[in-house]
TrEMBL record, chain A:
Residues 327-581 form the ABC transporter domain. Residues 91-279 form the ABC transmembrane type-1 domain. Keywords: ATP-binding, Cell membrane, Membrane, Nucleotide-binding, Transmembrane, Transmembrane helix, Transport. Pfam families: ABC_tran, BPD_transp_1. It is found in: Cell membrane; Membrane. It comes from Herbiconiux daphne. This is Dipeptide/oligopeptide/nickel ABC transporter permease/ATP-binding protein.
Automatic annotation (TrEMBL), chain B:
Gene3D superfamilies: P-loop containing nucleotide triphosphate hydrolases. PANTHER family: D,D-DIPEPTIDE TRANSPORT ATP-BINDING PROTEIN DDPF-RELATED, TRANSPORT ATP-BINDING PROTEIN. InterPro entries: AAA+_ATPase, ABC_transp_ATP-bind, ABC_transporter-like_ATP-bd, ABC_transporter-like_CS, Oligopep_ABC_C, P-loop_NTPase. Belongs to the ABC transporter superfamily. Keywords: ATP-binding, Nucleotide-binding, Transport. PROSITE patterns: ABC_TRANSPORTER_1 (PS00211), ABC_TRANSPORTER_2 (PS50893). Pfam families: ABC_tran (PF00005), oligo_HPY (PF08352). Residues 16-261 form the ABC transporter domain. This is ATP-binding cassette domain-containing protein. SUPFAM superfamilies: P-loop containing nucleoside triphosphate hydrolases.
Amino acid sequence: MTEATIASPVSLPAPRSRTRIVRRVLRDPVGITALAILIVAISASYLAGFITPIDPNATDLSSVLAGPSGAHPLGTDSAGRDVLARLLWGGQSTFAAAALATVVALAAGVPSGLIAGYYGGWFDAGTSWITNMLMSLPAVVVLLAARAALGPSVWISMALFGVLLGPSFFRLVRTSVISVRGELYVDAARVSGLSDARIISRHVLYVVRAPIVIQAAIIAGIAIGIQAGLEFLGLGDSSAPTWGMMLNEGFRNVLLSPLFLLWPALAITLVTAAFAVLGNSLRDALEDDEITPRTKGRAIKHIPHSEAGLVPTGSVAAADTDHLLVVRDLSVEYPRADGTTKRVVDGVSFHVDRGEVVGIVGESGSGKTQTAFSVLGLLPETASIAEGHIVFDGIELVSRTSGAVSRSRMDPLRGTRIAYVPQEPMSNLDPAFTVGYQLSRPLVKRLGLSRAAAKKRALELLATVGIPDPGRTYAAYPHEISGGMAQRVLIAGAVSCEPDLLIADEPTTALDVTVQAEVLELLRTLQSELRMGVLMVTHNFGVVADLCDRVVVMRDSRIVESGDVVTILSRPSEDYTRTLLASTLEGKTPRTLLLSDSAGETA
Amino acid sequence: MTTSNGPLANPESPLLEVSGLTVDYPRKGFGKEVFHAVQDANLWIGHGETLGLVGESGSGKTTIGRAILGLAPVSRGSIRFDGQDISHASRRKRQQLSSDLQVVFQDPYTSLNPSMTVGDILAEPIGIAGGSRNAARSRVAGLLEQVGLPRDAIDRLPREFSGGQRQRVAIARALALRPKLIVCDEPVSALDLSTQARILDLLLTIQLDTGVSYLFVSHDLDVVRHISHRVAVIYRGELVEQGEAEQVTQDPKHPYTQRLLLASPVSDPVRQAERRNARKAHASKS
């Protein structure tokens, strides 16, 4: 431990995430505008008595439907009442009614959603049934019926509307809770002896509170719209001023005074839009992490001979063409949000010969996979090759103008001369298609075989990779086969074109150790039969020892050392390689410390 | 299961004693068949001892750990912990047990609540157990030091830490109430090699300092050999071999354990070639 020991006094502050979200909304111009509109509208409504001294119900028949004047800034309506006063006082009931609907919807939906999601069972079944029923009811018809039965109270209709909106909270909360319930930290809380009430309030509600806030903002906007709609139809309580009623009056007098329609319409539009926009802004703030600017297509400046297009193949040194694959001074960069770049591969050089297995070994973040992906031309759009060469069989693959592997040069190679075996076999097979289809399709497309010939070849390949019943696997869907089997299928696909170079990215990491041994055996057999060059990315020294002829050790995006596998694994010259090998467990005295500097590092 | 696969000489009062444990899950659909995730498992763990439980994916090794923690249903058999039967312990009983029986999960990314600070995560179990706020604070500071995390970690969120550091937080949480047994469910398999070595060193140091027992569940025979006093091997829901760590992991008797050992590659190319040939010979024999 370093200076951290003497730093900062101990305290338990509130999590920072909430303030971070608020700050993000405030930075978002749309969000801050929406928030400002709402604050102004709500405070103006509740300060109506101070803003205008005029009683909203006071009639003045001497000035009916008058335009804006000193006494009436927004004019008067058909009964000579002050429009500004009515607009402000009307806002009070509008916001209160919207709040009522939202609170009722929250009360109806959130607790039931939490319980249904956390416990499931009969309560879940029952509440889900009620929810479905409520959602199938046409809200406006129910509200009209309620008004006929219970009288024209805005409070009753908004409370009822809240009940009708409850299902949207219920569904949201229930779904979120079901996904959180399976998290390990909820299991850990149960093992810690926390009661269900505490787990729900502390661990589960914490996670679902953000979507609830967003939904509430949107619901409030909807409630205002519906409320105004009912009043516009003349179904509201006519004793107090409301925006809907004003809209109705304005509509009736639109030919006499079109301006009178404008004010309530503007108020309703602004407020409902502000609620919706605020909801969206909150959602954007929660959707994590800053967006990094794309730099794709940026030309590389700091390479001297880069004035136009591709580096001519002729400029590659003669020695490079003797190897199957040459990677020289390769650097790969990603843009950061602050405009700088992050180098994930820095000045990497190595080569692979025909019939040779080269391993790239390193820990996570060492840049080993990024190096392999550069060679495959599979880097994400945002990445750029800042420097260096990738030469496959004498062909320069890096395009200087785009800062990426040239598609026109790579496309004819990939899947025919350069093949790839991924880490996660299951996620690399499309669950919607049979294994046979996914295996034979490239044979038809790439190698131009007929369908019958492609099927015959695919069955041969499945037999080659040691699948016991090729016909059955050919007809199977990916979920019907095991992970080891899926990796054999992908290897079959990779070698179907008899490639010169096979790039395998942690091909056995997701597999059980007994299956791993079989897959390594298969790779070894195919490699020697087809005399392929293999670039093997792995973190496992056992895999390196098993398969590789030479090995490249990477750390923090650079090469630490490289050489013959026996030399590197038994007599490494770099400290880092020694530390890595010291971390392997085979042959160590059990129950002794592996590393002397164990305490307080940056693991 | 044959007698030779049973536990070694069982001490008078082991900390944990699992006998005849069976965990069944109903299969989806209308059939009455059940899936035996674990069948008739017998094992015990002494005070201050580590039992390694090794098996491949789907073997039921994690289910045994979860049954002990009360997170998986016990269909038959008994689990005795510290002299009491906990196979069907109530929620209230579990809460009392939580100070003696703890867990470290595999995935340090989902086992910590992302919206709580490290300080709150560590203080929570102490608060449940009735500790005062001040006592909790000083305990949290002590825990951070014990697992080798900087003091300012207390105010930070889990996402600010690497996988290895998060696993240290999870270990600190498990240690918070000074438990007698920690179920470690693949605690190092999501970590890099050198990080794995550091976490294993940490678990070993903690055991030597506090005398805690571990049930160490892993798929990796090398890891289990290194950390355990005794090792049990599980294959398709059944314990096939159990014994002293060295014997089980270097000179296994059961064909499945032999296969497991020969399949695990070593980092010396010459010896790996020998092991490879031995594996092929073993495979053609069976």
